[in-house]
Amino acid sequence: MKSDAYGERLYDADLYDFARVLPGTERDALRRLRAVLDQRVAPLLASSWERGEFPREIIEPLVSLDLMDPNRDSGRVSPLYAGFRNFELARTDASIATFYNAQSGLFRTAVALGGSPGQAQEWDPLIRRWELTAAFALTEPNHGSDIARGLSTTCRRAGDTWTIDGRKRWIGAADTAANLLVFARDAADGEVKAFLVPRDADGVSLTRIEGKTSLRIMQNFDIELTAVTVDDHWRLGGISSFADVSACLRAMRSDVAWIATGAACGAFEAARRYVLDREQFSSSLAGFQLVQEKLALMAADVTASLALVTKLSQQQAEGIWRDENSALAKMFTARALRTTAALARELCGGNGITLETDVARFHADAEAIYSYEGTQDINALILGRALTGYSAFTRTPLRGAAAASAAS
């Protein structure tokens, strides 16, 4: 970490020192988080990745930091602090960031924006203390990018009870959370509702997804819900349509952009450590021109990504929420991560495919981040719609003579 005339930067890769705008309490909170990540989490990552298992022993140290709200007197969490918290987690490991954000980002945001005022007030302190935990269960086996129209999990109301049937896929942290936040389409009105379902409720079945080559530490599950009954008290009162779900996703997309930026920083830092320690032709790799050019390109991508997500979080703190802004940030940062991780692996040569250098994790995990919480194509179409005024998400199928002509 470098010092300059203005004091110490939090991150070497943050060349423009975007983190400087954080107040002292938040910077101190991030330093405490870093100490736990360096001492209690990082030593377990390579073996956990190799086994494809989540190291449950890290949960207590992370939870005990109580870092969701470092400024208790402010009455709200700074979006910029929440972003840098994801950044700090992801520069250590994307799976760890995804796990923490499942609670602090996905679940907490869904309750804050989609819960009734009473639910938000009652549940948020419990969420913050990890006394109420839930995994975000939206994606389905046959519906990812088209989930808005394609969501097929159903719910039916009878008095004060709902019955849920359906399947979910790619649900992260479902084995460590006590509940599932399940989104289902109401058979009565065709609109989407959301429910807090106990993981061990009758009719809930979890199957771990095996054979992953990305985010191996993070556990993802297929979930089947068969005649699962839930009291109406556990339905999120502020979600009555997919438009309400979209309002939550708009906020969550910025979380993933921060994770992508942090992972790019982690890949850069790992590659720089390697070239500073490695000698070839009796010289330090760090002194080679092409090596320095690659490091410069990586640092530029991290800096540009930080500029985007910092401004995005500042806008959100001012109450400015635009789909196209979140989509732009996710689209750019995920692509920049892919490029940066590839350069990091390249700089480490053959050793870059081993877990020892750390870059292999970032290189593999970049592929998952590139796709989840909105693929590159979907985010480009959200941005394109804002730029042109035309929606290009679907095209009307050709029929009759036109279809025959196209086929020939």
How does the major sheet shape up? 7 strands, mixed
Q: Quickly count the helices.
A: 12
Please trace the helix and strand order, writing H or E for each element: EEHHHHHEHEEEEEEHEEHHHHH
Structural class call reads alpha+beta
Mean pLDDT: 90
Quaternary structure classification: single chain
- Taking Cα atoms only, what radius of gyration do you get, to the nearest Å? 22 Å
Distance linking N and C termini: 63 Å
SS elements, strand count? 11
**What helical percentage do the residues reach?**
40-55%
Q: Quick one: overall form? A: globular
Strand content: 5-15%
Sequence stretches where pLDDT stays below 50 over 5 or more residues: 401-408
Overview of the molecule:
With 408 residues, this protein is α+β, with helices and mostly antiparallel strands. The strands form 3 sheets. Strands 3, 4, 5, 6, 7, 8 and 9 form a 7-stranded mixed beta sheet that branches. α7 (242-277) packs parallel to α9 (323-347). The chain has 12 helices and 11 strands. A hairpin with a 2-residue loop joins β1 (3-4) and β2.
Summarize the structure.
This protein has helices at 24-51, 59-64, 79-92, 94-114, 117-128, 147-150, 242-277, 289-317, 323-347, 359-371, 376-388, 400-407; strands at 3-4, 7-8, 134-137, 154-158, 161-172, 179-186, 192-198, 204-208, 220-231, 279-280, 283-284. The chain has 408 residues and is an alpha+beta fold.
